[in-house]
Design goal:
It comes from Miscanthus lutarioriparius. Its cofactor is heme. The chain is an alpha+beta fold. Helix content is about 15%, strand content about 10%. It has a domain of about 90 residues. The chain has a two-stranded antiparallel sheet. A two-stranded antiparallel sheet has the order 2-3. Strand 2 and strand 3 form a beta hairpin.
Protein backbone atom coordinates (compact mmCIF):
# COMPACT_ATOMS: atom_id res chain seq x y z
CA UNK A 1 0.00 0.00 0.00
CA UNK A 2 3.01 2.29 0.46
CA UNK A 3 4.99 1.55 -2.70
CA UNK A 4 2.07 0.70 -4.98
CA UNK A 5 -1.02 2.68 -3.94
CA UNK A 6 -4.15 2.05 -6.00
CA UNK A 7 -4.76 5.78 -6.41
CA UNK A 8 -1.55 7.81 -6.77
CA UNK A 9 -3.29 11.17 -6.24
CA UNK A 10 -5.71 11.69 -3.38
CA UNK A 11 -9.00 13.53 -3.81
CA UNK A 12 -8.28 17.23 -4.52
CA UNK A 13 -8.49 19.60 -1.55
CA UNK A 14 -9.14 23.32 -1.37
CA UNK A 15 -6.91 25.42 0.88
CA UNK A 16 -9.22 27.29 3.29
CA UNK A 17 -6.57 29.78 4.37
CA UNK A 18 -3.10 30.96 3.40
CA UNK A 19 -0.53 28.38 4.48
CA UNK A 20 3.16 27.62 4.07
CA UNK A 21 4.28 24.03 3.39
CA UNK A 22 8.04 23.76 3.50
CA UNK A 23 9.31 26.58 1.30
CA UNK A 24 6.04 26.90 -0.66
CA UNK A 25 3.30 29.44 0.06
CA UNK A 26 -0.21 28.23 -0.78
CA UNK A 27 -2.84 30.98 -0.96
CA UNK A 28 -6.42 30.39 0.23
CA UNK A 29 -8.67 28.97 -2.48
CA UNK A 30 -5.90 26.99 -4.19
CA UNK A 31 -6.79 23.46 -5.31
CA UNK A 32 -4.22 21.06 -3.83
CA UNK A 33 -3.44 17.54 -5.03
CA UNK A 34 -1.64 15.17 -2.62
CA UNK A 35 0.72 12.75 -4.36
CA UNK A 36 0.56 9.62 -2.15
CA UNK A 37 2.75 7.75 -4.66
CA UNK A 38 5.61 10.23 -4.19
CA UNK A 39 5.25 10.34 -0.38
CA UNK A 40 5.54 6.54 -0.21
CA UNK A 41 8.86 6.67 -2.11
CA UNK A 42 10.38 9.76 -0.49
CA UNK A 43 13.83 9.02 1.05
CA UNK A 44 13.37 11.99 3.40
CA UNK A 45 10.42 10.14 4.95
CA UNK A 46 11.34 6.45 4.54
CA UNK A 47 14.66 4.68 5.08
CA UNK A 48 15.42 2.63 1.94
CA UNK A 49 12.05 3.56 0.41
CA UNK A 50 12.26 1.23 -2.61
CA UNK A 51 12.82 -1.90 -0.49
CA UNK A 52 9.92 -4.09 0.61
CA UNK A 53 10.56 -4.42 4.33
CA UNK A 54 7.32 -5.03 6.24
CA UNK A 55 9.26 -5.25 9.51
CA UNK A 56 9.72 -1.46 9.35
CA UNK A 57 6.20 -1.15 10.78
CA UNK A 58 6.76 -3.48 13.78
CA UNK A 59 6.64 -1.29 16.87
CA UNK A 60 5.89 1.78 14.74
CA UNK A 61 2.98 4.12 15.42
CA UNK A 62 2.42 4.62 11.67
CA UNK A 63 -0.83 3.05 10.45
CA UNK A 64 -2.98 3.10 7.31
CA UNK A 65 -6.00 4.81 8.86
CA UNK A 66 -5.15 8.36 7.75
CA UNK A 67 -3.70 9.73 10.98
CA UNK A 68 -0.07 9.63 9.80
CA UNK A 69 0.52 11.66 6.69
CA UNK A 70 3.49 9.57 5.54
CA UNK A 71 1.23 6.61 4.69
CA UNK A 72 -2.10 7.45 3.05
CA UNK A 73 -3.39 4.47 1.03
CA UNK A 74 -7.00 5.40 1.89
CA UNK A 75 -6.58 9.16 2.13
CA UNK A 76 -7.44 11.12 5.26
CA UNK A 77 -10.13 13.28 6.76
CA UNK A 78 -13.57 13.85 5.25
CA UNK A 79 -12.53 12.59 1.83
CA UNK A 80 -11.08 9.34 3.14
CA UNK A 81 -12.04 6.20 1.21
CA UNK A 82 -15.43 5.02 2.49
CA UNK A 83 -14.45 1.40 1.78
CA UNK A 84 -11.42 1.40 4.11
CA UNK A 85 -13.13 -0.55 6.93
CA UNK A 86 -14.45 -3.16 4.52
CA UNK A 87 -11.08 -3.50 2.77
CA UNK A 88 -9.11 -3.88 6.02
CA UNK A 89 -11.44 -6.67 7.13
CA UNK A 90 -12.19 -8.49 3.87
CA UNK A 91 -8.84 -8.49 2.06
CA UNK A 92 -6.99 -10.45 4.79
CA UNK A 93 -9.89 -12.93 5.05
CA UNK A 94 -10.06 -13.49 1.28
CA UNK A 95 -6.27 -13.81 1.04
CA UNK A 96 -6.20 -16.32 3.92
CA UNK A 97 -8.90 -18.41 2.24
CA UNK A 98 -7.06 -18.39 -1.09
CA UNK A 99 -3.78 -19.39 0.58
CA UNK A 100 -5.52 -22.11 2.57
CA UNK A 101 -7.42 -23.63 -0.37
CA UNK A 102 -4.78 -23.48 -3.12
CA UNK A 103 -1.10 -24.21 -3.69
CA UNK A 104 0.32 -21.30 -5.71
CA UNK A 105 3.15 -21.32 -8.24
CA UNK A 106 4.37 -19.35 -11.23
CA UNK A 107 3.58 -20.62 -14.75
CA UNK A 108 6.02 -23.12 -16.25
CA UNK A 109 9.20 -21.43 -17.45
CA UNK A 110 8.78 -18.26 -15.35
CA UNK A 111 11.26 -17.53 -12.57
CA UNK A 112 10.58 -15.19 -9.63
CA UNK A 113 13.51 -12.98 -10.70
CA UNK A 114 11.73 -12.28 -14.01
CA UNK A 115 8.66 -10.69 -12.38
CA UNK A 116 8.32 -6.99 -13.05
CA UNK A 117 6.81 -4.50 -10.59
CA UNK A 118 6.81 -1.69 -13.17
CA UNK A 119 3.62 0.35 -13.22
CA UNK A 120 1.69 2.29 -15.80
CA UNK A 121 0.02 5.55 -14.80
CA UNK A 122 -3.58 6.59 -14.99
CA UNK A 123 -6.43 7.20 -12.58
CA UNK A 124 -5.22 4.06 -10.82
CA UNK A 125 -1.74 2.49 -10.94
CA UNK A 126 -1.94 -0.99 -12.50
CA UNK A 127 1.09 -3.18 -13.14
CA UNK A 128 2.62 -2.77 -16.59
CA UNK A 129 2.91 -6.57 -16.94
CA UNK A 130 0.04 -8.43 -15.22
CA UNK A 131 0.96 -11.08 -12.67
CA UNK A 132 0.09 -14.61 -13.74
CA UNK A 133 -0.04 -17.35 -11.14
CA UNK A 134 -1.22 -20.95 -11.23
CA UNK A 135 -3.59 -22.04 -8.48
CA UNK A 136 -3.71 -25.76 -7.80
CA UNK A 137 -6.49 -26.89 -5.46
CA UNK A 138 -5.28 -28.62 -2.31
CA UNK A 139 -6.86 -31.92 -1.39
CA UNK A 140 -10.44 -31.38 -0.24
CA UNK A 141 -10.88 -31.34 3.52
CA UNK A 142 -13.11 -34.02 5.00
CA UNK A 143 -16.41 -32.67 6.13
CA UNK A 144 -17.01 -32.80 9.85
CA UNK A 145 -19.54 -35.57 10.44
CA UNK A 146 -19.84 -35.07 14.16
CA UNK A 147 -18.93 -37.52 16.97
Amino acid sequence: MRLHPVGPLLTPRLAREDVSVGSDDIPAGTRVFINAWAIGRDPAVWEAPMEFRPERFVGSSVDVKGQHFVLLPFGSGRRMCPGMGLALRMVPMILANLLHAFAWRLPDGVEAEELSMEETFGLTVPRLVPLEAVAEPKLPARLYAGP
